Amino acid sequence: MRLHQVQQRLGERFTLSPRAYPLFPSDRPARLLSPHGMLSRLRAGLQAERDGLACRAWPETQPTPRSSLPALAAAKCARLQGADAFQRFDLALYRAYFAQCRDISDQETLVQIAEEVGLERAPFLAALESGAPQAQVLADYEDYRRRYGPASPGIPLLEVDGRVVVGSAATEVYERVILEGLQGGAAGEPPGRPEVSPQEQAVETSVSTEFVDFQQRLEFLWEETTWKAAAYQARARVAQRQGYAEIGEVLAQAARLEGRYASVLAEMLFADYIKDTSYNVERTIEREADTSAQSQLIALAAQMGLDPVAQLLDQLVAHRLATAGRLRDLWATTASGQHHGDE
After folding, report:
1. Alpha carbon of 156 to those of 6, 61, 150, 250: distances in Å?
2. How far apart are alpha carbons 63 and 103 in whole angstroms?
3. 74 or 181, which is more confident?
4. Residue range 18-31: average pLDDT?
5. What's the predicted TM-score (pTM) here?
6. What is the CATH number of domain 2-147?
7. In 3D, which of 10, 58, 11 has the Cα closest to residue 34?
8. What one-character-per-residue DSSP string does 281-328 give?
9. Spatial separation of the C-alpha atoms in residues 243 and 245, rounded to whole Å
10. Fewer CB within 10 Å of terminal CB in the chain, N or C?
11. Pairing verdict, β 163-166 and 157-160
12. pLDDT band, residue 247 (cuts 50/70/90)
C-alpha cells in the first residue's frame, strides 16, 4: 500500500519490482484463526486503517486461508496484464482479506477479484493454471532465503541499491530511501547533512533490523501479558470458588497488574493509532456494533447444546453493545458541548 503511494508520487522516476515471500508456502489443513493470528491481524489491521484500508475481525467460525502461495501467484498473473492491473489487483487483495474476510487461497475467489478490478479472466486463469507463477513465487522465496539466510530479517523488506529497510515503515521513510538511491544517496537529505558512507549505511541497516527485532519482542511480551491477565483472573475465580480466598485475592491482584502493564505496552506499541480520543471512540462504537461473528458463535454453541457458553457469549455481546451505546451518548453530548464552545 505505502510503496504504491510512493510509486504514484514519483511516477516514472523509479520502477517497483515486487518479489514474493509466502509465509505459508504449503497447504495447511483448514483451521480457525488462532489467538496469535487474531493479534497479528489486529496489528496489520491497525496499520492498514492508517493507510485508509478498512479491517474487520476474522469470523471466529470461518476457516482461514490455507496458504499464502495462491494469492502471491495470482498477483504474478495480474502483473502480466500491466503495472496498473497489478496495482489494482494487489490493493483488491488487501481489501478482500482484511475488509471482506474472503478466502484468498481459493482459486475461484482470486479469479472473481481479478474480474472485479477489470482484469481479463481468460489470460489470468490460463496463467494461474499453468503453474508458472507458483514456480516464480517459490523462486523468489528461495532467493530471499539464500540472500538473507533462513532466519530472515523480516517482511516487508525494501532494498534500494543495496540499502535495506526491514519491517513496515512510514511512507516518508520509503520515499526518502528511494530518492537517495535515485540520486546516489544525497537526495532527500536535509541541507548540511554529510554524505553517508557504506559503513554508516551498514550500521544504519543493522540498527533498523535490531529495532524491528526489539519491537517484535515487545509485541510478543504484550501478547503474553494480555494472556496472563486473563489466566490469572481465571485462576483467581477458581481459587475463590474452592474457598481459597487469600490465594484468590493474590491472583486477582496479579491479573489487575498484568492488565495494567498490557495496557501501557499497547499504548507504547500502538501510540499512533490510539492517541486520539475521537478516533478511539468512533472505532470502538463501530467495532462493537458489529456482532455478526459473536452471534454466529452463540448460535453454534446453542446448536451443540452448550447453553452456558451461549449465555456467557450473550452477556459479553450485551456488555459490548452497552459500552458502545454509553460511549455514543457521551460523545454526542461532549462533541456538542465542544462545538458550542468553539462558536
Report:
1. 15, 29, 16, 43
2. 8
3. 74
4. 78
5. 0.53
6. 1.10.472.60
7. 58
8. HHHHHHHHH--HHHHHHHHHHHHTT-HHHHHHHHHHHHHHHHHHHHHH
9. 6
10. C
11. antiparallel
12. very high
